[in-house]
Amino acid sequence: MAFMILHLNEPGREPSRIALAVEHIVSVREVADDAGTEIKLSDGTIVNVTEPYMVIVNDLGHLGVRFASPNPT
Questions:
Q1: Nearest 5 degrees, angle CA 19-CA 53-CA 59?
Q2: What top-level branch of life does the organism fall under (predicted)?
């Protein structure tokens, strides 16, 4: 099982990281105003991270993940 290590976007808290299992990522969405990227997991959890949308999508592509549409939401 492949994991991605991402930096959480938690205003007012110390910077932290989280490992997400790639197989549980359902969608990746860019958040407005450069607030980061929103990742939805298979259990419905939404995780906000600081990495840019294209960085995450490119990393997932390198891991062999394909999305149903060119602009997943």
A1: 55
A2: Bacteria
